């Protein structure tokens, strides 16, 4: 397949400039060289439609790009990004964009759950893309995996923690024993919950996302009104405590499934067995658990909201729809444009946990610690475990477990070699790296 | 963008017919109608190249399709699926396929980690696709998310549990206290490990996948020889026990990161804090944890090997490359072709956990149980918790927690209503559904 368009700049219009929109502008600017390499053409932000162009803005946003004429803006764009939210005027603007031949990227779950098919049909007729990864579970890639990666499989069931606010609230109730009201107030204080938390707490937000997910997973139109919904407002501290006693945690789940009766989607609080991968989803994180015939169980986990995570998902979609315009859909197979140097394994920064057996007499720990200090490696913790004398000499044996702070592989390995050379050290039993801390 | 090809059938050739290949044939056959709807054209399997066409095969494979002439087969295909493995003849066959204008889907991690760029460059020159979701982490969509969903973001670090065999072995050592050799023997008995487990145990398999992931994440060519590698053969039961004592679990991790020094990729056993999402990855499952600038932390979890899971990933890629040929890359936005009925929420099958306060006297539990039985709802467990008398009457109060087996929402709700009507029942304190069990 050969490029169908010369790689001139693609004109990008942004509708909305709140928390997400501002981060979209920032990424489009900061990553412009990488984006151009990935797309095969530069992306040019030609305007940002806002309700009030004179309102204060983040300095990342060039005020010269602001316009209150959204309708005019969408008609001079190749790609329209919509992060304004709500049904109107978002719907009309996106339909205008599509009619004018633009591809659309939207994060608008309310619109898609209410009336997505109108937009999808218009896009199909116009032969343009509508992408909406950011509308479900924020930064978590879930639309693309369900729509594309599982396109050769049959999805049976999707269980999702799709609302970070309620997950934070339930997690606080579980781990700190808070009551619902206190947990909601804490979420508000941290900016996880709105002043009016109804959309989150009563499950409306999760229901909109469930409608979109069910539609995708089962190739069937599911609207928000088709989703049965129950929020967390009746969950008590007592419920949470009893859940723990019976080996469960309470989560607000979106459940989409296909059975002999058809497709169903529902949102309600549920007891999840504590060994289930969804039970470990903490704080304001989201996760989507998918059961497919051939793939088996899959889970996707990450940040479901927030400016930068949502903008990341939006930009991924922008690159996809832009590639379609430049390359007829084909991404470059050889995407090795960055060609960064390969770092030596010796430069890798890691932490060590070292177990060693030393003579059980005063001063040994000081000698060992000195060897770390000489090589600039700092010690995070030392544990001394009593151990029966090995019977191989008059002195007892002490078992030390030393965990370091970060250091280069070279410095850490040199330290271990020096320790092995100490008279007082009988054996270095084990050296393991610590990762993910 | 308009279709550039008429929707005539696309000719699909399969190279290799082992465990994965057989499942690919099965899915191509069983899902043919769905696949045609998703692609916009039927997929026709035109041949299956095998070393010995007379060897016994699974009945899912039509013997008339078998051929020993792989070179001839790839020249008469639009899409070539390669699941034979190894460097040659896979590389030559795929280069022939690409030169003849076919798109390629491969699960061959060894080839891609050794010499992927040769294939990618040939595909770019020929203007065809090379997709390889199945080459890393089996059924887990990770190539597509890293290559597409995160295309507008900067990946900083990837931590992966990429080898199910070693994860199973380490998990058995952790949860059942087995020594390494016993755990490996158990993995062999269950078919998770080969008779010669070297490729898994010594980290070669994980290193190949790490090379592919690092190349993708950092847009830089990373070969298997660039990956520093240490297997799990020196991990002892004692190490595992000590890890637990210090709040860690031992995992064989692939670590790909970009620092000021460049890109590095390494595979080694590591202590992972037990609160980290990767620590909860059990058995033969795989998981990939990604840290990106804007998206933050993401994790992808699922089956990393096996015939059906790997075939699911292969078929997802087949649909993508087939769409590119039919629609110039654009997937139909309106993918609602299945249009299954929306089931009534009353038909949903779930389980209830019901807490209630009842008079503390003989016979009450029997009355309650009778109401369940009359509605066909079976009880999984009843716990009775002593609770101080509420002080509102002479009789003591018993607190019951009843968990049901599966039942329809209608039957379960009707049972609860009937229970509420019993004289001996003072309050139904809470009704919660149980999911994911």
Topology:
Two copies of one chain form a homodimer.
Chain A: E1 10-15, H1 19-30, H2 32-39, E2 43-49, E3 66-67, H3 70-74, E4 79-82, H4 90-99, E5 103-106, H5 109-126, E6 130-131, H6 143-149, E7 155-161, H7 164-176, H8 180-189, H9 198-201, H10 204-218, E8 228-229, H11 237-245, E9 248-259, E10 262-273, E11 285-292, E12 296-303, H12 307-327, E13 349-359, H13 364-374, E14 379-386, E15 397-404, E16 407-408, H14 409-420, E17 425-434
Parallel strand pairs in A: 1-2, 1-4, 2-3, 4-5, 5-6, 8-10
Antiparallel strand pairs in A: 7-9, 7-11, 9-10, 11-12, 13-15, 13-16, 13-17, 14-15
Distance between the termini of chain A: 46 Å
The mean pLDDT of chain A is 91
Number of DSSP E strands of chain A: 17
| Percentage of β-strand residues of chain A | 25-35%
Report the total helices of chain A.
14
Give structural notes.
The first copy, chain A, is built from 14 helices and 17 strands. Chain A has helices spanning 19-30, 32-39, 70-74, 90-99, 109-126, 143-149, 164-176, 180-189, 198-201, 204-218, 237-245, 307-327, 364-374, 409-420; strands at residues 10-15, 43-49, 66-67, 79-82, 103-106, 130-131, 155-161, 228-229, 248-259, 262-273, 285-292, 296-303, 349-359, 379-386, 397-404, 407-408, 425-434. Chain A has 437 residues and is of the alpha/beta class. The first copy, chain A, is globular. In chain A, helix 1 (19-30) packs across helix 12 and helix 4 packs parallel to helix 5. The first copy, chain A, has 3 domains: 10-138 and 308-327, Rossmann fold (3-Layer(aba) Sandwich), CATH 3.40.50; 143-305, Dihydrodipicolinate Reductase, domain 2; 345-434, ACT domain (Alpha-Beta Plaits). In chain A, the strands form 3 sheets. Chain A has a 6-stranded parallel beta sheet, with helices on both faces. A 6-stranded mixed beta sheet of chain A has the order 8-10-9-7-11-12. In chain A, strands 13, 14, 15, 16 and 17 form a 5-stranded antiparallel beta sheet that branches. Chains A, B: Belongs to the homoserine dehydrogenase family. Chains A, B: NADPH binds at residue 109. Chains A, B: Its cofactor is a metal cation. Chains A, B: Pfam families: ACT, Homoserine_dh, NAD_binding_3.
């Amino acid at each position: 397949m050969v490029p169908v368009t010369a790689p001139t700049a693609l004109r990008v219009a942004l509708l909305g400039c709140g928390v997400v929109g501002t981060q979209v502008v920032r990424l489009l600017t900061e990553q412009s060289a990488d984006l151009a390499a990935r797309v095969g053409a530069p992306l040019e932000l030609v305007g940002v439609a806002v309700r009030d162009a004179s309102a204060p803005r983040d300095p990342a946003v060039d005020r010269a790009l602001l316009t209150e004429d959204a309708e005019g803006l969408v008609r001079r764009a190749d790609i329209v990004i919509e992060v304004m939210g709500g049904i109107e005027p978002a719907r009309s603007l996106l339909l205008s964009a599509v009619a004018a031949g633009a591809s659309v990227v939207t994060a608008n779950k309310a619109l898609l759950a209410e009336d997505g098919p109108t937009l999808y049909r218009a896009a199909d007729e116009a032969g343009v893309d509508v992408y909406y990864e950011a509308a479900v579970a924020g930064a978590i890639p879930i639309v693309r995996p369900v729509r594309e990666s599982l396109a050769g499989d049959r999805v049976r069931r999707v269980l999702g923690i799709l609302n970070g606010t309620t997950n934070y609230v339930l997690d606080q109730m579980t781990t700190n024993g808070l009551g619902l009201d206190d947990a909601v107030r804490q979420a508000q204080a941290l900016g996880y919950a709105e002043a009016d938390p109804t959309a989150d707490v009563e499950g409306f937000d999760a229901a909109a996302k469930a409608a979109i997910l069910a539609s995708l997973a089962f190739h069937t139109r599911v609207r928000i009104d088709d989703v049965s919904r129950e929020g967390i407002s009746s969950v008590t501290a007592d419920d949470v405590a009893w859940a723990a006693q019976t080996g469960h945690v309470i989560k607000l789940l979106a459940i989409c499934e296909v059975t002999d009766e058809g497709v169903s989607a529902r949102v309600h609080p549920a007891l999840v067995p504590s060994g289930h991968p969804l039970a470990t989803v903490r704080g304001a994180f989201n996760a989507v658990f998918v059961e497919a015939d051939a793939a088996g169980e899959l889970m996707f986990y990450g940040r479901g909201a927030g400016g930068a995570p949502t903008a990341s998902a939006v930009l991924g979609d922008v690159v996809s729809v832009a590639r379609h315009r430049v390359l007829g859909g084909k991404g470059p197979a050889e995407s090795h444009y960055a060609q960064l140097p390969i770092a030596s394994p010796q430069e890798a920064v890691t932490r060590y946990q070292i177990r060693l057996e030393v003579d059980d007499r005063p001063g040994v720990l000081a000698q060992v610690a000195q060897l770390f200090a000489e090589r600039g490696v700092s010690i995070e913790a030392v544990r001394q475990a009593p151990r029966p004398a090995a019977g191989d000499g008059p002195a007892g044996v002490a078992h030390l477990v030393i965990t370091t702070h970060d250091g280069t592989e070279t410095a850490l390995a040199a330290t271990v070699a020096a320790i092995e050379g100490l008279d007082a050290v009988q054996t270095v039993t084990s050296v393991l790296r610590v990762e993910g801390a």
